[in-house]
């Protein structure tokens, strides 16, 4: 109950719930259209989606200030890669929210004759840049964890029973007489190496749920601006599914703050 009270008290949580409903409508509208549903029903779903989008823009008014404050905190991080990625990401988010606020004013009639298409494209560009930097941060932290886990295993475990990635000298000498031999020897070596890397990757992500959730959330989100900007069109159905999935993951991090990746 305490978690629910804390969740309900946050405007960000409300925005995430409306976002989930909005992308659920996107997915539902695509499904109805493909299923040949009545045009009136599809129009109603589209209008509901538009109203939810406008409500979300209202709830995000002033978020630029919060993003700028986050950038000011990130600039003091000791790790140079995290400092660069997070600072620029928050600055891009601030610009994204500012463009979104202007777009909200245009949609509500507060700013007349606003080129909504131009401002929407500009907003999604800033959103895309922020997501690219967030994914870069996720990959960087994942690499650090993988290297740390490898060092730990190397110090605690006996020598690996798997074959070395270096081919024996006799196999190299025989390569001139048998061209297929190196490929025959290298394939099991590469297969074993890939199996070990995948197992290590799975273990690291399993032991670090915040990083796993953030990586999944950003990976889902990035398809939204890619589609809206026409860089990589995926269609309404895929965008709706990705938006719904990332919204649910965001709600999980709000209900359980320990699942939020820090800093």
What order do the helices and strands come in, and which of them pair?
Layout: H1 2-8, H2 11-34, H3 39-59, H4 63-74, H5 80-108, H6 116-156, H7 169-173, H8 180-206, H9 209-221, H10 223-228, H11 236-255
Describe the structure.
- With 263 residues, the chain is mainly alpha-helical.
- The longest helix has 41 residues, at 116-156.
- The chain contains 11 helices and no strands.
Offer a quick outline of the entry:
This protein is mostly helical. It has eleven helices and no strands. The protein is globular.
Strand content: under 5%
Mean pLDDT across all residues, rounded?
87
What sort of overall outline do the alpha carbons produce when their principal axes are compared?
globular
Helix content: over 70%
Assembly of the depicted chains: single chain
Contiguous low-pLDDT stretches (5 residues minimum) are: 162-176
Terminal residue distance? 27 Å
- Which sequence of SSEs, written as H and E, runs from N to C? HHHHHHHHHHH
- List the total number of helices: 11
Largest sheet: none
The number of distinct β-strands equals 0
What structural category characterises the helix and strand content?
A: mainly alpha
What is the alpha-carbon Rg in Å?
A: 24 Å
